[in-house]
Design goal:
Layout (H helix, E strand, L loop, with lengths): L7 H33 L5 H52 L9 H10 L5 H23 L8 H49 L10 H18 L3 E8 L2 H8 L1 H17 L6 E6 L2 E7 L3 H17 L15 E8 L6 H17 L5 E3 L3 H7 L5 H17 L1 H21 L3 H13 L9 H4 L7 H8 L1 H9 L8 H7 L20 H15 L11 H11 L6 H17 L1
Parallel strand pairs: 4-5
Antiparallel strand pairs: 1-3, 1-4, 2-3
Length: 567
Amino acid sequence: MIDNRPGTIEQQFKERSRSLELRRRLILLLLSLVFLTFVSFNTDRKVAVISVTTFLALFYLVYLYIFLRFFEKKYQVIWWAGFLLDLAVVGFLISVCGRIASPFVLLYPLVMIGAAAICPKERDFIIAGSLGHVSYAWAVYSFTGNFSFYLDANFWIICVLNGIIFLSTVQVIQLLTSDKDKLYYLTRDLERKNKRLEQVAVTDGLTGLYNHKYFWERIAEEFERTQRAGRSITVLMIDIDYFKFYNDKMGHLKGDELLRQLSEIFNENVRRGDIVCRYGGEEFAIILPETDEEEGLKIAERLRNVVAEYPFEGREHMPNQQVTVSIGMASYPKDAADAKELVKRADSALYCAKQKNKNSVQTYYSVLEDMKNSGADQERLFKTMEVMVSIINAKDSYTGGHSQRVVRYARALGKRLGLNEGRLRALLYAAFLHDIGKIEIDKKILNKPGPLTEKERKEIKKHTLYGVNIVEPVLTSEVIIPAIKYHHEHFDGSGYPEGLKGDQIPLEARILCLVDSFDAMRANRPYRDALSLEEAIGELKINAGRQFDPKLVSKFLEVIKLEKAMN
């Protein structure tokens, strides 16, 4: 069975080569010592023998150090250096203690066998063979002091025998190793392709960032690691403002280039260890491990500012002559208990950021948590509302996000009007539950992309009464129930369900009518695109005195103006 783990085959090949090479050199060393011992009993050159033995020992110690030190990075170079030193050692032994038929000549085949494994090409074979011949010729010349040995038949017989041994060894080794080498190179090629496929599988082809699939894999891993360590983690969801407008104006190729440039900007302005992904379309996601809300907010603001100041091509055609992004963020453990909920809440915060004039950073905000922490002491009421929220979100994701935003607008306007704490809290409950009756409406009607039929419009109008029927059994309030029931009554009496007008409509219902309509104008719906802030303000002014209480419109415009100035 082939081990396909990255680097395993190559590592095994190198380890095997190193092991064989060390064993061959050990045999060469032992044979050298045996021949030296033999010669020392048959010659008067004992001093020379001792010198050569010392040299040989030092040489192998030095070579062993070099071999182990540099093998991984420069194996080919180290091998050729070792081969030359082997030839030099054998030649030196022959020159000191030998002759043409010296027993040390028997060491040449061992050296050439080592060369056989590394000389599969004809060029390498000729080079290695030539070097072996030069070593032998130099050794004999050093011993005899002349070149007369070139005329000695014994010299050429030994050269030819060594050449035959070398050639035969090369062929045998090639025969034995060819299949393994093919398998090795095929396996290496397969590993490279597998790595490439793995990279492609988790990489966005346009931007080079990690893709949606990888984002969910990593957020699960990082969240689990964060929980074990008891630390924080933050997720940023980023969307390009007016990207469709940019695409229409500049063309899709320029739009693609904008996405690539933004990808580079995000990568360059996050920390090492942060994970930047293309979540889809013009939306990006960044995982910030070991990051709390405060630190995450700093990073998000830095990214927003860098993008807003960058001289993108075509930015002069964009609103405020800038390419900008909206960023939503959520942090664990503050905002969510699991990874999926963390991403969902960061996405919810992004939606809010895009509704707040864009080019802004919005942290996740929980209406229920805020109301719970504001002093509401009715535990049963709070739990009931949590159940109702889950019902709303399951029925219609737009209604869930819409209710959150209506609560924020209602709070701001209620405070501007000077409502007391109890009445303001009741207004917030009513704002959060004003569309609860839509759970009784067919989802196909709620999400219908085209105009409603008369029958469908009548069914939609029933949601205020459906809401009262749902809420009344569990909430007894003189403010909440009327606000839910009458939030679609118009100031001029043209609304429903009872056609009330002016001050006949409860104040809380008039507030909800105004803020509910404003948020609906600012949001994309199945049947139309969102209005700009200026367009929505214009609609409020036009309908003041007709659909909306003109005094409330005036106050709400002050709220919008103040919020715009703060942002």
